[in-house]
What we know:
It comes from Diaminobutyricimonas aerilata. This is 16S rRNA (Cytosine967-C5)-methyltransferase. It holds the Pfam family Methyltr_RsmB-F. Keywords: Methyltransferase, RNA-binding, S-adenosyl-L-methionine, Transferase. Belongs to the class I-like SAM-binding methyltransferase superfamily. RsmB/NOP family. The chain is about 50% helix and about 10% strand. It contains 21 helices and twelve strands. It is of the alpha/beta class. The protein starts with a helix and ends with a strand. The chain has helices at about 5-20, 25-35, 40-55, 55-65, 75-90, 95-110, 115-125, 130-140, 145-155, 155-170, 175-185, 225-230, 235-250, 265-280, 290-300, 315-320, 345-350, 350-370, 390-400, 410, 435; strands at about 190-195, 205, 215, 230-235, 255-260, 280-285, 310, 325-330, 375-385, 405, 430, 440-445. It folds into three domains: about 5-140, N-utilizing Substance Protein B Homolog, Chain A (Orthogonal Bundle), CATH 1.10.940.10; about 145-185, no CATH class; about 235-445, Vaccinia Virus protein VP39 (Rossmann fold, 3-Layer(aba) Sandwich), CATH 3.40.50.150. Bound molecules: S-adenosylmethionine.
Amino acid sequence: MSVQPARRIAFEVLDAVRSSDAYANLLLPTKIERARLSTADAALTTELTYGTLRRLNYYDRVVELAAGRPVDRIDPPVLDVLRIGAHQLLAMRTPSHAAVDESVSLTASVAGRSATGFVNAVLRAIDRSTPEEWTGRVLATARSDDERLALEHAHPVWIIRALRRALAAEDRADELAELLAADNASPRVALAALPGLAGVEEAGEPTRWSPVGVALASGDPSRVPAVAAGRVRVQDEGSQLAALALSRARAIEPGERWLDLCAGPGGKSALLGADAALGGATLVANEVVPARAGLVERAVAALDPRPEVRVGDGRTIGDEQPAAFDRILLDAPCTGLGALRRRPEARWRKSPADVAALTALQLELVASAAKALKPGGLLAYVTCSPHLAETRPAVQEAVERHGLVAVDTASALRGVTREPLPTVDGAHLQLWPHRHGTDGMFIQLLARVNR
Ligand SMILES: C[S@@+](CC[C@H](N)C(=O)[O-])C[C@H]1O[C@@H](n2cnc3c(N)ncnc32)[C@H](O)[C@@H]1O
């Protein structure tokens, strides 16, 4: 029996994510396009791939219980087939015979005939109980409340604890389950119409917050002509607000110099560059990884004038160009814990050790950005992570060590957003997937006060 392309592609992506650290959100669209899948098959492939990757810990526990052995004693390609099979049986309600038979055929082609009996037996064992019965059985294996939440909502325990702390800092710890559920829902595609180059109405319906935001009703964004021309770009609304917080917090004086310190792949540079061009300012987009600087070049290609794109370490710009910029965006490298809904496997890749390394880098970048800021200038410190270790220390050092003043960011965005953002305690703005429908961006404006 031949294997349906949807299941084969889902397997290939899981295999590449596991064995060569591939990014599913980059690899999957390429494979779907190459296979010339219909819209329905593309949607099925995406659900098989993303749904399985998100809930890996849950399906691994199901497989362990059904197979009677730990997953590290199962051949990795066979385990991937079982994970995809379990997702079909427990979450997609695929008819049993299709899920089992196709998984067996897939096993024969990727792991050899000798493994097919095992896959058949494990999937039939999974199919003998209802999804609800499996949930009960899996949750009963949890050794703590947090492990139970981790299995129920498919997040690692350390991320659950970090998100709970970040919510608790806003007195919202009781919203944890809602946040975890939002991380598991596929976001709608949001687009940004670049100011001066495209109108919102060209591409779809206006979004809730961003004045340049467009919601794509359905389909492939690259088929929208303005997207193909680079005048409208796929960009989360939270990211749009981060760029607009800097470009629209105050009127632009012609001749202002702006810097995007960590620009790759260039989403925010494109929006900043468009606003800069309209206001008579110039933008320099800096990125340390040359290949990512190439992506920035592509992102800003439709702009006139085009921002200068440079390859360099943002940590040295402050010494190289002190007091040179009127506005700086520091969209810091971070764990991305606020964007887990977009990158289904990301949650399983990160570790607490990444946080410590990133906090250190963020502090060095803040020091450099603060030096590069002119008196009277404005800095936006941004992360797509609400982790307190990636937000609080950078802002605290900007104020206490580098003499910047925290600006009330929600107020600065008041006249900018379509709908007023809910008020927050403190000068920063923390967006949340479950509250705002955006990625979990943290945005703090900081000013160097004129002396
Ligand atoms: C969160 S991403 C920026 C996303 C970008 N602003 C956008 O909207 O498309 C952070 C970027 O910082 C870059 N980066 C990491 N270390 C850096 C450094 N020392 N100097 C400059 N850029 C750095 C990473 O390569 C990555 O492209």
